[in-house]
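Retro notes
What went well: the complex prediction finally ran end to end.
Inputs used:
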Amino acid sequence: MPITAREWHLAARPHGEPTPDDFRLVEVEHPDPAEGQVVVRMVAMSVDPYMRGRMRLGPSYAAPWEVGEVMKGGAVGRVVESRSPDVPEGALVLTDAAWRDVAVLDARAVRQLPATEDLPLTYSLGVLGMPGLTAWAGLFRVAAFREGDAVFVSGAAGAVGSAVGQFARLRGASAVVGSAGSPDKVAWLREIGFTAAFDYHDGRVKDLLAQAAPDGVDVYFDNVGGEHLDAALGALHVHGRVAICGAISGYNATESVPGPKNFSSLMIAKRLAVTGLLVGDHTDLHGEFTETVSGWIRSGQLAVRETVYEGLENAVPAFLDLLKGANTGKMVVRLAPDPD
Amino acid sequence: MPITAREWHLAARPHGEPTPDDFRLVEVEHPDPAEGQVVVRMVAMSVDPYMRGRMRLGPSYAAPWEVGEVMKGGAVGRVVESRSPDVPEGALVLTDAAWRDVAVLDARAVRQLPATEDLPLTYSLGVLGMPGLTAWAGLFRVAAFREGDAVFVSGAAGAVGSAVGQFARLRGASAVVGSAGSPDKVAWLREIGFTAAFDYHDGRVKDLLAQAAPDGVDVYFDNVGGEHLDAALGALHVHGRVAICGAISGYNATESVPGPKNFSSLMIAKRLAVTGLLVGDHTDLHGEFTETVSGWIRSGQLAVRETVYEGLENAVPAFLDLLKGANTGKMVVRLAPDPD
């Protein structure tokens, strides 16, 4: 019996800010799974800022989505039919195969999730998944965080940012400063242990950062780019380190984005080290990351928040709202209740 | 008997391009040396691009020169009178005490030069001195050069750039590409073993670099900034590395200098590592650097060129011409004949 799936296709490459017209929800019939395949019914799918890059051609963080084809992205689901000895029916799996409600996939294209019965399945898309590992690798490897460092993270109330700030605190940062886009988010950052936090709408980032971190910082974890990066380069100490993880302030730009001002002279005078970060380079850290972070969650030392939209039809609103900063913590689209 | 010295003082902080009026040559009488002091008669002094930074207040590569005071900079000289048991009369020394013809100095402020009778004394200001060590540390440590890397260096016919390119060649670079500011310099770069070289006046740096390095590069050693840095970020491979050593294209800027375009997205998509370089962080490399490089010079594997201006009164023209790129190799001002 053929399998009916609902899928989001890329309808058009946006110019500037994406709109709902750039996406199309279509119904597709798939044949029954072949030998070695499984049918996965998705429980939740991820929308992430980096996906804005997959909508365009040119330098991006992952292969661009093709116009007229299904978009790809992280999701967790349950195997409802299996023709592979490796992945049993009923298994909970992580895939890169949403945005859709059900998919017929090669068994090799899914990863079985370990039993974490006490933790929500969706954490595998956030704090225990790609965003969490991004924070881990960016802070500890790329930015070479050391105990006693003062850390500034932008987009601090997002999935990656909130992990970065808390990881830094738990590993002995002397200060953790975060920027976010609303008073609620700022309040939440203070709640979860940030030393200082500010709403970047409240003034020039440079001034707000100087107020929040009057003694400067050693590490900057950048999710935002633009004015935030400018301000951070100014606030960094000699031998400061920057992980460039994202630049959401420029994702909808239609012209080339201006770079940080006085870049060369700041880089030299302070011998800064600025490094680009993609999580795919750092999967070797997955073991230590998972063990440590799941421990922190279980012990209550690490706060986790999610913003959940319900239903596949709301995947596009979730994504567009994410780009506008509507989420606190990980933005997730729930497609089915958590399995028992 | 008091010692009469001629000294260059900073007369004014320039706005934009420095002019001769920003400097003043004055005659000063110094008292006889006190206990622990030496009198050094300079043989040659260095003018370097970084000195433009010492003319201004604010983020710089070294302490700013004070208006109305003598300027400082590397020089080699001979001790003509000594009241220190550590530094005998007649010793050849390196000091940071030019721009002047004679200076009364603490013995601790001079470094005795090893006997290198076969090599010109002025090499201690260039290929065997600060610029050479800058090239060494920037290429091998900061940019983490590895055998087989393709290297691009801007300002390649300068003291630092010509060392970088040749060091890379001698350590097994797959390609060494240089940019310079005149056909003569480009011809010289080809002569001394650069795989490809171009005159940046001949078109857009981006296009010239694409032609010279069609397969891209692994390492960029930046002496120029601006359009060169933009072009290099575009040409770098995934995991490419950049040492930011200088930014001569922006040294006379009167407003904030725009940064590299699309910086964040390039940094992330290619996971580039960009690091600022100041030679003072890397003095621990001095031993291996001196030994290897003096060996390369003696064996004829490393070409050295100097541009020499004669006389203290020509120090300012030398410096101003340096900023315009009039030199090939190290720019030196000779104040006296080499001692026997």
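What we learned: The domain at 130-280 of chain A is CATH 3.40.50.720 (Rossmann fold).
What to try next: split runs per interface for comparison.
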